[in-house]
Recover the amino acids of this structure.
């Protein structure tokens, strides 16, 4: 999932949380952010 930049990844995560998307998508984004060392 290295296609997204860090900024896009954070934006996608916030958007998914705000719009209550599928929990699997949120988990995937969250794990990718952790892997890159980004803060939630």
């Amino acid at each position: 999932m290295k296609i997204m930049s860090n900024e896009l990844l954070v934006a996608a995560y916030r958007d998914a949380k705000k719009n209550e998307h599928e929990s699997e998508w949120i988990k995937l984004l969250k794990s990718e952010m952790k892997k890159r060392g980004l803060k939630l």
Notes: The chain has a mean pLDDT of 89. The radius of gyration is 9 Å. The CA atoms of residues 4 and 38 lie 13 Å apart.
